[in-house]
Specification:
18% strand, single chain, 3-stranded antiparallel β-sheet, 7-stranded parallel β-sheet, alpha/beta
């Protein structure tokens, strides 16, 4: 197939492009090389055109003859300031809407796009009295007092974390999350209007070779490694008990290519994770061991926009996309430490 890969010069995009080519697909790449993501010399990628998905001229030049679009271009990060809202809306929501309009002009009817687990907000918790509940938002007074577990919205008891399925109510709690929900909704509207197909892949915490370490949107693994490389103990927020699903970028690339190759009908969302929840503290420990660095310290600090636990059930992707994560967590963390 002939695949247009947007954001193909990014961390995940470069792995997806490599995997597509290994699978025999012809890949065209566009990337805006925005300076808050890409620093230093421009990457040399076969078939790459520097351009923005918000530019109709760029789209009209690259979309004819494309079989499926793999849309990874986005502004990433939390969006911790109200001033960030316009850029998230413009880059992610407007960017996706512009891409979808261009696809309609060119007659391209298949889309695989990167979404995120952040669309679930605090995910799902289990209350001893009320069962499965969407956690109430955490408030600053509780966090400042060290009460980090999100409460039941009915009785305020702490909830036990649970896996979240794709049918859960979406509950975006920061600008980035809201923009990802917007991308999914615009794609769904486009599919209804055109008869196209959409697979939205809700990536979990992605790590691996090429993880950016010197941008303002670096993941927590990159932040920990940066501290360790400077001889400093990684500072873990809250009490280190935040649960995440750390998934290797090669597994994410294989899942994305599986969607490109298999999803050709209707609209679906898929959680993409390793299937094994781990705490942020466990990840910091694994990185410290890998580089023989200082033991992580629990800072007790917090960010109000952060979620406590978000771990999802990825069985639908395994079943429908015929995909299976294969990368080992300990080996992956050692490889990450060695590569950065």
């Amino acid at each position: 197939m002939r695949v247009l890969l947007t954001g193909g010069a990014g961390f995940i995009g470069r792995h997806v492009g490599e995997t597509l080519r290994e699978r025999g697909h012809e890949v065209a790449v566009i990337d805006s090389l925005r300076p808050d993501v890409h620093r230093g010399p421009a990457p040399q990628i076969d078939g790459m055109r520097v351009g923005d998905v918000r530019d109709p001229g760029t789209l009209d030049a690259v979309l004819p003859g494309i079989d499926v679009v793999c849309h990874l271009a986005a502004k990433v990060g939390l969006g911790v300031d109200v001033a960030d809202l316009p850029d998230y809306a413009d880059s992610n929501v407007h960017g996706t809407a512009s891409l979808l309009s261009g696809m309609a002009r060119a007659g391209v009817g298949r889309l695989v796009q990167a979404s995120s687990m952040v669309v679930y907000g605090e995910g799902l918790g289990l209350c001893t009295e009320h069962g499965a509940m969407s956690p109430a938002p955490r408030v600053e007074a509780d966090l400042a007092a060290g009460r980090f577990e999100p409460p039941c919205p009915l009785c305020r008891r702490p909830l036990q974390p649970a896996l979240v399925g794709e049918q859960a109510v979406l509950d975006p709690r920061n600008a980035y999350a809201a923009s990802k929900v917007g991308q999914e909704q615009f794609a769904s509207a486009w599919a209804r209007a055109t008869g196209g197909s959409v697979a939205s892949l809700r990536y979990h915490n992605v790590y691996g070779p090429g993880l950016p370490i010197d941008t303002p949107y670096a993941g927590v693994a990159a932040i920990f490694l940066s501290a360790l490389r400077n001889g400093q103990a990684p500072a873990v927020f809250e009490d280190g008990g935040q649960r995440r699903d750390f998934v290797h970028v090669r597994d994410v690339a294989r899942a994305t290519v599986a969607a490109v190759e298999t999803h050709a009908d209707g609209v679906a969302a898929y959680n993409i994770g390793s299937g094994t929840p781990r705490t942020v503290g466990e990840m910091a420990d694994a990185l410290a061991r890998a580089v023989q660095g200082p033991k992580p310290v629990v800072s007790g600090r917090f960010r109000l926009g952060d979620v406590r636990h978000i771990t999802a059930d990825s069985s639908l992707a395994r079943r429908e996309l015929r995909w299976q994560p294969v990368e080992d967590f300990s080996d992956g963390m050692a490889e990450l430490a060695d590569r950065l």
